[in-house]
Amino acid sequence: MLINAARLDVMHRLGRAMADPTRSRILLTLLEGPEYPAVLARDLGLTPSNVSNHLACLRDCGIVVGQHQGRQTRYEIADPHLAQALTALVDTTLAVDEAAPCIDPVCTVTGCAGDEEFSA
């Protein structure tokens, strides 16, 4: 079976976007509904410039879009089908070995094997 280059590019972009914990947190927040960068920064405990850089990456990958509203831009998942797929993906229960060490030494994901609170 031949792999369509455009589909492979979509998978690569989505994987790259979700591989970064900060971008994943932003995407999870945007699954709840559109939001402004300043609110994302406040709610996620990030700097506005950090959020702006990650939103630029997500926007350039075609995963989110910005809607200008006066002097502000509100971001949302680019396509309802993508939002539905992401929701299904995060709702899927994976068979993960909870004793396996986290590969990210600075991981802050609750429930991750590298999480001190869970490991104790």
Can you tell me about this structure?
It is a single chain. This protein is mainly alpha-helical and 120 residues long. The protein has one domain (2-96): Arc Repressor Mutant, subunit A. The protein has helices at 5-19, 21-31, 37-44, 48-60, 80-91, 116-119, and strands spanning 64-69, 72-77. α3 (37-44) packs across α4. The model is unreliable at 114-120 (pLDDT under 50). InterPro entries: ArsR-like_HTH, HTH_ArsR_DNA-bd_dom, HTH_Metal-responsive_Reg, WH-like_DNA-bd_sf, WH_DNA-bd_sf.
Overview features:
120 residues, mainly alpha, 2 strands, disordered C terminus
> SS-based structural class?
mainly alpha
The amount of beta strand, in percent, is 5-15%
| Low-pLDDT ranges | 114-120
CATH homologous superfamily identity: Winged helix-like DNA-binding domain superfamily/Winged helix DNA-binding domain
Organism: Enteractinococcus helveticum
Protein name: Transcriptional regulator
Domain HTH arsR-type: 3-97
Pfam family, one: HTH_5
